[in-house]
Amino acid sequence: MTGTSEKDFMREEKECKRITEVQELKDNLQRRYSGYISNLKHEFSKNKKKEKLPKEAKQILLTWWNIHLKWPYPTDADKVALAEWTGLDQKQVNNWFINQRKRHWKPTNEMQAAVLDGLYGPLYE
Known about the structure:
mainly alpha; 5 helices; 0% strand
């Protein structure tokens, strides 16, 4: 019986020593790199992805989208007005329309042909 308790005592002593060493290592690393870590935390918090657009802003953009569904390309003046109405930056308005067209709009063949005609002249004469 005494052999078992001696083994247990030795095992516990080793475990305590290991825990102490690990804690000392953590403390040493934290002292050495705490400034660097806090700078990284600060940088990561600055670069956090912004939240979704406000509901009211999305509703205004969707209303414009639905009215102009055949050709949902706002002019520069439209973008300025939409930015003012929504409280968003023009870049946000522009990106919203780019994403909306990619995700939810498919131009008809006639529209694609009209664009190509405008760029390159009629395909068939």
